[in-house]
């Protein structure tokens, strides 16, 4: 059950989070950090490892699959020379999970601009790159914490483009991928799915927009006919208080902030980014590179701990299925 943990952007807090996570999880689970050991904080206890040797090493040292990034790390200062090696670490992690040598992939935060400038990275982010490597038609982003799971149907696009981008096909695919993942990866035998309306008050019967009447409601009804347990379209402003959350297992939202604001309000430090629709498990801490505190020792490992634990739990769920 070794989890592959990719290094992420060396100039960020990723190299500092790995040894913190090891210290807190070494008696609980096993992960293998893929990166340049020279980028780890001074004094880090680490040993060269493979997925097979990592479980024996984990109790005494951080297991590391070493990669030479050529130049030293400069906290807070991304370097173009690191970019190709960051991508190679991701590639190696994907290879390890697809070959069955690791049970899941957990990725520390990358810096997209550094990858564009240094490696010609042509993807909006981690999720899309992993989908490309896996040959997946579409991957879906879920944000999860113990109190809430949310999935935005559209992600990193301007708000004014959302109504056109949110098609019946996109919404259907998002819900079906989420439904399958809830069963396979989270052990929920009959997922209860709540779907938010796009407009305030879910359109208020067409007075504040017609997407709910013309698009969302017919799409949801077609999925109910297939046997899915779906509520909606619901007014997003009343979906996320405690009593409402108790009525569903996962919420599907129309756009990025509609999904991410509630979960980051509920659990800012402990949220986990999960990619659904891949042939392997992938989780990531729900934060960025934190250049402003890199190298200061102030990095908070809470989300990384949650991402590693969720990767383990999802792998166990798939094994039990």
UniProtKB/TrEMBL annotation:
InterPro entries documented for this protein: PdxA, PdxA_fam
GO cellular component, one term: cytoplasm
MF (Gene Ontology): 4-hydroxythreonine-4-phosphate dehydrogenase activity; cobalt ion binding; magnesium ion binding; NAD binding; zinc ion binding
Gene Ontology BP terms: pyridoxal phosphate biosynthetic process; pyridoxine biosynthetic process
Superkingdom of this protein's organism: Bacteria
Signal peptide bounds: none
Keywords annotated in UniProt: Cobalt, Cytoplasm, Magnesium, Metal-binding, NAD, NADP, Oxidoreductase, Pyridoxine biosynthesis, Zinc
Binding-site residues for a divalent metal cation, renumbered to this chain: 156, 201, 256
EC number(s) reported in the record: 1.1.1.262
Annotated pathway: Cofactor biosynthesis; pyridoxine 5'-phosphate biosynthesis; pyridoxine 5'-phosphate from D-erythrose 4-phosphate: step 4/5
Subunit structure of this chain's protein: Homodimer.
Additional information: The active site is located at the dimer interface.
Name of the protein described by the UniProt record: 4-hydroxythreonine-4-phosphate dehydrogenase
Originating organism: Histidinibacterium aquaticum
Gene giving rise to this polypeptide: pdxA
């Amino acid at each position: 059950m070794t989890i592959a943990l990719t290094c992420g952007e060396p100039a960020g807090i990723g190299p500092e989070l790995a040894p913190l996570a090891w210290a807190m999880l070494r008696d609980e689970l096993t992960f293998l950090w893929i990166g340049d050991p020279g980028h780890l904080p001074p004094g880090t206890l680490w040993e060269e490892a493979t997925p097979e040797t990592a479980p024996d090493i984990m109790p005494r040292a951080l297991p590391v699959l070493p990669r030479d990034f050529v130049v030293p790390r400069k906290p807070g200062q991304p370097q173009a020379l690191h970019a190709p090696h960051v991508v190679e670490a991701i590639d190696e992690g994907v290879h390890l999970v697809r070959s069955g040598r690791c049970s899941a992939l957990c990725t520390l935060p990358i810096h997209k601009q550094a990858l564009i400038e240094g490696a010609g990275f042509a993807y909006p982010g981690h999720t899309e790159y992993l989908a490309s490597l896996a040959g997946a038609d579409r991957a879906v982003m879920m944000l999860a914490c113990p109190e809430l799971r949310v999935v935005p149907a559209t992600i990193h696009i301007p708000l004014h483009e959302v109504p056109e981008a949110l098609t019946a096909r996109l919404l259907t695919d998002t819900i079906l991928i989420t439904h399958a993942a809830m069963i396979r990866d989270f052990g929920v035998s009959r997922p209860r799915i709540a779907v938010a309306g796009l407009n305030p008050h879910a359109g208020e019967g067409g007075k504040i927009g017609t997407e709910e009447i013309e698009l969302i409601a017919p799409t949801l009804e077609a999925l109910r006919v297939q046997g899915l347990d779906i509520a909606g379209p619901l007014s997003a402003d009343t979906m996320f208080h405690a009593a409402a959350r108790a009525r569903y297992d996962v919420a599907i939202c129309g756009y990025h902030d509609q999904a991410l604001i509630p979960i980051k309000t509920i659990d800012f430090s402990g949220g986990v980014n999960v990619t659904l629709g891949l042939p392997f498990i992938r989780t990531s801490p729900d934060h960025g590179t934190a250049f402003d505190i890199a190298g200061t020792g102030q990095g908070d490992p809470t989300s990384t701990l949650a991402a590693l634990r969720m990767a383990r739990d999802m792998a166990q769920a798939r094994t039990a299925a």
